[in-house]
Amino acid sequence: MNTVALNQPVEYLVRTFDLCKSFGSLAVLRNVNLEVRLGEVVVLIGPSGAGKSTLIRCLNRLETPTSGRIIFDGHDLTGAKVDLPSMRRQIGMVFQHFNLFPHMTAFQNVMEGPLTVLRQPRDVAENVAHNLLQKVGLAAKSKSYPSELSGGQQQRVAIARALALRPKLMLFDEATSALDPELVTEVLAVIRQLAEEGMTMVIVSHEMGFCQRVADRIIMMDEGTIVEDGPPSAIFSHPTQDRTQRFLKEILRQEG
Ligand code: ADP
Ligand code: MG
Predict the structure, then answer these.
(1) Would strands 12-23 and 67-72 be described as parallel, antiparallel, or unpaired?
(2) Measured in angstroms, how far is the CA atom of residue 52 from the centroid of ligand 1?
(3) Single pTM value for the model
């Protein structure tokens, strides 16, 4: 978690400047100015279609912004000279659907990046994979194939695989939305542990209790813009915007 000392310059890992993204005539992101400090956990909330996934996908340039700038760790991701493969290596992403390599064991899935992308020697990559599977509580499953793992276990392997490239930023887009309810907790626990270790993260999640506990900052999005931005205590207890109030009321009603 982030603690910014007073009188010190704020260090941003990510900043967007008037980021816009349109698909044809549909403006999906409209002048988004997002700031993520080093070590900060930012949670994006908002109704379906608000542009949360598009924003996250722009951050690692899975989408090309229509206009505006993205600065990541001092590099202009929107500049003509950007080395995208090198940048993407530093930004781990976990999606709703665990996209593991089906023909590889959990261990091989985690080892693949260190071996082929970072070109680490095999014994080093094996060591990394071993440690990361242990970290996500799956040391005993290292020889299992994805089809032999539960959704929650697969998602934890996906997190270990992303961490194996030693990213500076982790992006999670509804990482638990496809899971059976009883498997959600084990995945959220891993994400929470990363937060405690100081990993910088941008997370899209509908798990409001989790958001409240893990976030340094909550950002409410609607119709392609940031509607409200503040600490969880403020957003959940005293949302200032009608749209935030309505969204929270609706989602808490759904949670029962
Ligand atoms: P959220 O993640 O908040 O639900 P998205 O970023 O997925 O929102 O989508 C925002 C809007 O952009 C939606 O109206 C969606 O239909 C549209 N959209 C997203 N991706 C594409 C695409 N590749 N082509 C056209 N429209 C898209
Ligand atoms: Mg989405």
Answers:
(1) antiparallel
(2) 8
(3) 0.94
